[in-house]
């Protein structure tokens, strides 16, 4: 059977799973005479002009020859999608002549085919095989290249001088051949947009080549345009149609589906009515592929099967709707928003005494725990530790609270940042990182550890299957806590890795700070991944490789910098809302790669203290103080849905290789921060693209992101990624902007058994689904 076949014919076989067909698709840009230019040859005497063939919609080349003229060429600069193996020129001449084809490759080298004889009045297909043509000649450019170097810069149809002085040649079209051209149908969403006295209606002619019938009605005083925007990875395609005052204009718009489109995608097309007075109304229009999943749907927490995504809450500080935490009072409303985002974990403080002074859970606490459980949320109950409480008093509280909540709480966390809260340093003395001058461990940490270990033993007694975690100190002092000796009933270690002033790949613990901390809490590059490795190494050293990691707080604050001076080394930088979203996603994508990380909770869900604009502590939320969502809310909602059930596997990572990631020297970043301002702890930018492959409940997904700081100065960068053994996914790859949810086809093609992806990567991380 011939591997390629025409879409116009009855296609009878599939390359893969009923979705993507081998065949041809038109090079749509070749139908426009304005997209071509003429080459009149090296010797004088030739004339030529280009016209549209009104009868067939093709291209007419009318050429005349006098003097010593030898040929005429028509040149087109196409943007060929990856994976195209052949171009077919369908030509008909009104008299006999010879024709040929020429191309110009990326290196500037010309390749020219043999000559083909055209019979008068008979359509002939001239083949231009990009991977196997027998070239009659080649010159210029990279002289070592035996075949064209992609991308192809120009294609040219050459008409040799015939016996008669004039000739007319019709180019009916240029067709692309590829092994993964789609022939499955698309179904469009009809729509009606009414605004400013205008009415815009769109009705689809569904099928493999869907066409939108557009009608634009406007009153006499209206003028402007209707803009359709088709989503693309590199640059969106737009089509503009005039709003004609006092009449109804009708247009046909063919969806610009590359190689027949992707049957696994649902294109979200923008339709905007824009009038000259500045008025604008817009909506989205869906065009669904035959095999597309429901890309628009987002999972609720109760539908998420497994996830590390979570958020911190402050319900405990809002028993009444007053004070700086008053916005937390309507806990059910906020839990509904948490559940709608698909987050799986919530964390709050649980004071273990009722208002009457008796130990145990309050009615409000129990109501909140039940509300969380009803919404599919897992609760981490943080049990505060106070230095002014005796150990017996503390354990009495723990016993009562755990007894009453053990069916509602998923994880018990003992203590929260005792270096900051609970009065431990004030009572026992010591340093913020628990390192004394002789490198011994501060007494406050040793005393606090007694409470942690005793509580872990008691909780295990009361609830044998309980998950008990603790830590929450400064990162380096957690390692001291581990080496000091921990209860065998402690399941996991908590850390609060706020990056403070840097992108999430960086973290101010590691080799340059060994002298400050007295322990090896990271590596030489001050990378967050090095700190994770330090934890795992310490787990092994103390004989507890079973310990898990729980990031019960981390985040990025979106306050406005009001010119205040920095106080101390850990002042939070003022991030934009866009940067907050990007950095949260990037931190989570890394956490997905470590199965030892059981949960990571962004701090916190809602801006505190009425969102005071110049206060860092008041602006960490996914929601603003008025309950409106920041971009980060939607970003985590996308993560929750599209990485539901995410599973990391080193074998998957071994399949991924970044083949190319060029970066213009103007875009390279160097030193970001001199942490101690003494030149000893320099935090340098990571200029690399990161790519990780994950198995999820929704299929195989590649996460890709640029690790540089967020910036808007330059356009997105390019990357080429190879995925071993996934050639069958060529033409079936769908990209997703993890912040906006925008979807687009990702150019992909097979290379042997491997899949090659061509990616445009800006500040926003992408997820690419391989079908």
UniProtKB/TrEMBL annotation:
Q: What Gene Ontology terms describe what this protein does at the molecular function level?
A: hydrolase activity, hydrolyzing O-glycosyl compounds
**Signal sequence: where?**
1-22
UniProt keyword list = Signal
Q: Which SUPFAM superfamilies match?
A: (Trans)glycosidases
Kindly list the residue ranges recorded as spanning the membrane: none
Q: Which domain of life is it from?
A: Bacteria
Q: What is this protein called?
A: Glycosyl hydrolase family 39
Q: Which organism is it from?
A: Victivallis vadensis
């Amino acid at each position: 059977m011939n591997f390629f076949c025409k879409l116009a014919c009855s296609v009878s076989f599939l390359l893969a799973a009923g979705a993507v067909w081998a065949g041809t698709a038109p090079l749509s840009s070749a139908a426009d005479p304005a997209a071509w230019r003429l080459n009149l040859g090296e010797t004088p005497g030739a004339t030529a002009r280009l016209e549209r063939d009104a009868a067939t919609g093709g291209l007419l080349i009318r050429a005349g020859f006098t003097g010593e003229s030898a040929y005429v060429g028509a040149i087109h600069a196409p943007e060929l999608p990856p994976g195209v193996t052949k171009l077919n020129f369908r030509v008909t001449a009104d008299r006999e002549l010879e024709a040929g084809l020429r191309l110009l490759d990326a290196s500037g080298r010309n390749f020219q085919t043999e000559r083909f004889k055209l019979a008068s009045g008979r359509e002939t297909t001239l083949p231009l095989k990009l991977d196997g043509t027998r070239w009659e000649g080649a010159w210029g450019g990279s002289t070592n290249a035996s075949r064209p170097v992609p991308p192809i810069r120009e294609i040219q149809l050459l008409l040799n001088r015939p016996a008669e002085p004039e000739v007319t040649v019709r180019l009916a079209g240029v067709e692309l051949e590829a092994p993964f051209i789609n022939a499955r149908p698309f179904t469009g969403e009809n729509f009606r947009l009414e605004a400013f006295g205008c009415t815009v209606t769109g009705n689809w002619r569904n099928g493999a080549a869907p066409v939108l019938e557009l009608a634009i009605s406007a009153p006499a005083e209206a003028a402007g345009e209707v803009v359709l925007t088709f989503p693309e990875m590199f640059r969106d395609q737009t089509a503009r149609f005039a709003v004609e005052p006092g009449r109804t204009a009708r247009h046909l718009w063919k969806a610009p589906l590359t190689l027949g489109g992707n049957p696994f995608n649902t294109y979200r097309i923008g339709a905007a009515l824009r009038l000259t007075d500045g008025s604008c109304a817009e909506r989205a229009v869906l065009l669904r592929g035959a095999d597309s999943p429901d890309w628009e749907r987002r999972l609720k927490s109760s539908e998420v099967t497994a996830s590390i995504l979570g958020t911190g809450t402050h319900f405990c500080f809002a028993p009444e709707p007053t004070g700086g935490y008053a916005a937390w009072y309507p806990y059910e409303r906020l839990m509904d928003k948490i559940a709608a985002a698909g987050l799986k974990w919530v964390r709050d403080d649980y004071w273990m005494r009722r208002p009457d002074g008796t130990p145990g859970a309050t009615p409000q606490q129990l109501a909140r725990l039940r509300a969380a459980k009803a919404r599919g949320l897992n609760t981490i109950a943080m049990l505060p530790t106070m230095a002014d409480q005796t150990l017996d008093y503390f354990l009495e509280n723990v016993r009562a609270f755990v007894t009453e909540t053990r069916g509602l709480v998923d994880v018990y966390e003992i203590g929260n940042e005792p270096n900051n809260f609970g009065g431990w340093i004030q009572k026992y003395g010591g340093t913020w990182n628990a390192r004394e001058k002789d490198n011994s461990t501060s007494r406050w940490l040793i005393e606090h550890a007694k409470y942690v270990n005793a509580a872990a033993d008691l909780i295990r007694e009361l609830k044998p299957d309980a998950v008990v975690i603790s830590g929450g100190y400064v990162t380096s002092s957690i390692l001291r806590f581990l080496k000091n000796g921990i209860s065998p009933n402690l399941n996991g270690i908590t850390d609060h890795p706020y990056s403070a002033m840097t992108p999430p790949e960086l973290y101010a613990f590691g080799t340059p700070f060994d002298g400050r901390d007295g322990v090896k809490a990271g590596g030489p590059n001050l990378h967050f991944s090095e700190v994770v490795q330090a934890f795992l190494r310490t787990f092994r050293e103390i004989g507890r490789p079973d310990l898990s990691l729980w990031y019960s707080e981390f985040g990025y604050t979106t306050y406005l910098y009001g010119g205040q001076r920095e106080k101390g080394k850990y002042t939070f930088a003022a991030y934009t809302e866009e940067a907050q979203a990007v950095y949260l996603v990037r931190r989570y994508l890394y956490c997905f790669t470590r199965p030892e990380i059981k949960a990571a909770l962004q701090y916190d869900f809602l801006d505190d203290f009425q969102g005071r604009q110049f206060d860092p502590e008041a602006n960490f939320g996914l929601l603003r103080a008025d309950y409106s969502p920041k971009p980060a809310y939607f970003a985590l909602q996308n993560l929750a849905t599209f990485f539901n059930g995410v599973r990391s596997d080193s074998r998957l990572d071994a399949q991924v290789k970044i083949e190319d990631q060029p970066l213009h020297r103007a875009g390279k970043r160097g030193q970001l921060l001199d942490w101690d301002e003494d030149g000893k702890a320099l935090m340098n930018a990571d200029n690399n693209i990161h790519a990780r492959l994950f198995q999820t409940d929704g299929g195989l997904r590649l996460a890709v992101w640029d690790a540089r700081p967020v910036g808007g100065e330059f356009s997105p960068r390019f990357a080429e990624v190879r995925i071993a053994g996934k050639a069958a996914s060529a033409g079936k790859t769908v990209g997703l902007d993890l912040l906006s949810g925008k979807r687009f086809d990702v150019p992909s093609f097979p290379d042997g058994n491997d899949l090659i992806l061509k990616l445009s990567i800006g500040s926003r991380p992408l997820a690419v689904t391989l079908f």
